[in-house]
UniProtKB/TrEMBL annotation:
Cofactor: pyridoxal 5'-phosphate
Protein name: O-succinylhomoserine sulfhydrylase
A GO cellular-component term linked to this record: cytoplasm
InterPro entries named in the record: Cys/Met-Metab_PyrdxlP-dep_enz, PyrdxlP-dep_Trfase, PyrdxlP-dep_Trfase_major, PyrdxlP-dep_Trfase_small
Residue runs in coiled coils: none
Residue numbers carrying N6-(pyridoxal phosphate)lysine: K209
GO terms of biological process kind: transsulfuration
Keywords: Pyridoxal phosphate
Residue ranges crossing the lipid bilayer per the database entry: none
Top-level lineage group: Bacteria
GO molecular function, one term: pyridoxal phosphate binding
Family membership noted in the UniProt record: Belongs to the trans-sulfuration enzymes family.
Taxon lineage: Bacteria, Pseudomonadati, Pseudomonadota, Alphaproteobacteria, Acetobacterales
Amino acid sequence: MNKTSSHRLATRLLHDNIERSSFAETCEALFLTSGFIYESAEQAERTFQKKERHYQYSRVNNPTITNLENRLIHLEEAECCVATSTGMSAIFAALFSNLKHGDRVIASKALFGSSYWIVENFLPKLGIETAFVEGTNIQEWKKALSKPAAAVLIESPSNPMLDILDIRQIADLTHQAGGILIIDNVFATPLYQKPLKVGADLVVYSCTKHMDGQGRVLGGAILGSKDLLEADIIPFVHNTGLTISAFDAWILLKGLETFPLRMEKMTENAKICAEFIEKSDVVNLIRYPGLHSHPQYCLACKQMDAPGAMIAFEVKGGKKGAFTFMNALQLILICNNLGDSRSIVTHPATTTHMKVSPEDRLKLGITDGIIRFSVGMEDPQDLLEDLQKGFDELTIFCKNKQ
Ligand SMILES: *Cc1c(COP(=O)(O)O)cnc(C)c1O
């Protein structure tokens, strides 16, 4: 394995820590094998005793998966990584491997739907006390974390409203309460925010999103210190079988080669689109961390290296208005995925956040007019023209309603 170099990130992502086979392939090889063979019974024994480094079984280790984990370690500048089958299996493992009956878990309200479900419905069934706080309100964090807590789960920027949470402050409060801070960093990506550097203990990803970025596979990852990962998390992932497949890991490796390039283009497009959307008469509000109008704009500038490729905005006319806008689009796709190279809109109230009660949705700011916009790599002029088609239809709809 070639070692970590002193090159810059874009270079390291292409060249460093590639585990090559004896054939010296250029591109990482795809090892579609469930098992590995030993020269002797003694070698098998030494491998299981961890006295010799040898691959054993693809639920536990596989060279293609090792390559992916090494690449993610580079990106995050973390000590250790374990790749998982999906983003949710990463979040599940990060939480469960550290929890036991009687523990307390605190989470910010604005969470990805399935994460919300785990904290709201599943943890209490196991005798784990849970509480939600308004993530941007530090007083609520202080109150919730004045009692011991085993783990805290947050997202920043959050899905779908792009709330920015103060990672450093929440990490300090979590540690005072004796817990670990887990952050879902999907919206920012490791390119634009490094939570481990400001006190978070574990970073989790859905690699399905910007990392693959081409809508092909599901994947996830947990990153953090060697101590934390090796003690509980890696054994949990491997023994419960949350492992990613070598094939999906290989696709992700290919995606990561162009990750910085794609994110740069998508973020550039997002800035152009956000400025355009903000000026529309049929838009009530927009949330984009790169706009001065974002309620936590200063914190976003401090905490993130770039605002990313996700936008949320509220159109006039509620659900009907949102549907009119979305159905008038001819280029931008309607899909509940995000982070793709193709631009995508989602109506959270009727899809991703359908199961959240209407009252809770309103508390999260997810009104019926909210549209989540994942900006892709198209020519920005085509995106603006398509958005304009949506706004034109919506303008007619609003006039007819009056
Ligand atoms: C998609 C997503 C997840 C879940 O990831 P999967 O790969 O679908 O399991 C978790 N958090 C956020 C913020 C996401 O966007």
